[in-house]
Write a structure and sequence with these properties.
alpha+beta; 2,3-Dihydroxybiphenyl 1,2-Dioxygenase, domain 1; four-stranded mixed sheet; 3 helices; about 20% helix; globular
Length: about 160
């Protein structure tokens, strides 16, 4: 498997199937099931500053909340998604959803979460700093930055 800046490309397939001839640009959205759609829409807008898009086209759901070109698609629990599913497969699970930001905005996010009484955990990953916290349904979110001050990454100088 080789990786380019814009996409994943598979060159050798052990199954003998021809290589992929299309290119993926980026992750478009992550679909998340929520217990209270209106409460979750408000939370993602108020706490993370995500912008609601496509409501005119799709109505109540999925509620697409976006940062730049990446979105979170909120679905109400018990909603009918059967047309989008492949039959016979189990629903997957998301470990966490991560948003990238600058170092200054990571510090602002920490301050904002603290002021809102939302508990979070800081982790130093060496090349990145992250904070982890939960949305109203307990799904883990991460805000991360690779934009560290030089003093934080002397081994990369």
């Amino acid at each position: 498997m080789t990786v380019s800046a814009a996409c994943w490309r598979w060159s050798a397939r052990p199954s003998g199937i021809e290589s992929i001839v299309f290119k993926l640009q980026q992750i478009d959205h992550v679909a998340v099931t929520v217990s209270d759609l209106k409460k979750s829409i408000a939370w993602y807008q108020d706490v993370l500053g995500l912008e609601r898009r496509y409501e005119d086209a799709w109505g109540d759901y999925p509620a697409m909340l976006c940062a730049g070109s990446t979105c979170v698609a909120l679905f109400p629990s018990g909603g009918d998604e059967s047309s989008a599913k492949t039959t016979g497969t189990a629903q997957g699970m998301i470990r966490h959803l991560a948003f990238r930001t600058t170092y200054a905005d990571l510090l602002e996010a920490e301050k904002n979460l603290h002021e809102r009484g939302i508990p979070f955990e800081f982790q130093n990953h060496g090349i990145a700093h992250s904070i982890y916290f939960a949305d109203p349904d307990g799904q883990q979110l991460e805000i991360t930055t690779y934009d560290l001050p030089k003093a934080e990454k002397p081994f990369l100088a």
